[in-house]
From TrEMBL:
Phylogenetic placement of the source organism: Bacteria, Pseudomonadati, Bacteroidota, Flavobacteriia, Flavobacteriales
Keywords: Signal
Secretion signal, residue range per the UniProt entry: 1-26
Name of protein: Uncharacterized protein
């Protein structure tokens, strides 16, 4: 009887963590209840999220909200309404180191127990979002940005995207 109780508690904890999972990187807790992924946004932060660099995703099922740095035309893009939309001008992929290793597994899914999206990191939630790393004036403070880096510029209050040459800002 005691084993059944312990197993029930363990199953309940696992289900709770899957349904209400939130991840903080570089800190102990996330900001707010509507966050699935949050970063340590200390004053003076100069780190952002680096998007995968790819020459396209042929043969893959794409979902809205997929972000990549497309090395075919050196643009940061988002997949929306069955089409790629550029978020930057043509930049440069000369700094990108090619990763020729084979993909292993389906990647990591946060916020849900599974996903139909195919990505290395999939944030899947009906009621939670990601808080980007916050950087004040990244074009000045990030000394060596990598192509495909994105962050939230706290000075201009915009999405900042580095295309390998310049920063692009989106309101």
């Amino acid at each position: 009887m005691r084993n059944i109780k312990n197993i029930s508690v363990a199953v309940a904890l696992i289900a709770f963590n899957v349904l209400f999972s939130q991840v903080a990187i570089g800190k102990q807790t996330v900001d707010g209840n509507s966050t699935v992924l949050d970063f340590d946004n200390i004053p003076g932060n100069t780190k952002g999220v680096i998007l995968p660099a790819t020459s396209g995703l042929p043969g893959r099922t794409l979902v809205n909200g997929t972000f990549v740095f497309d090395t075919t035309d050196n643009k940061v893009k988002v997949f929306e309404n069955n089409a790629w939309k550029p978020l930057s001008d043509a930049g440069s992929s000369s700094m990108i180191v090619a990763n020729n290793s084979a993909d292993l597994g389906k990647g990591v899914v946060m916020g849900a127990s599974s996903s139909t999206a195919d990505g290395v990191l999939v944030l899947e939630s009906q009621d939670k979002a990601m808080i980007l790393p916050k950087v004040a004036t990244p074009h000045i403070n990030v000394k060596n940005p990598y192509p495909g880096m994105i962050c939230y510029d706290t000075t201009s209050k915009t999405l900042a995207v580095f295309d390998g040459l310049v920063w692009n800002y989106w309101k």
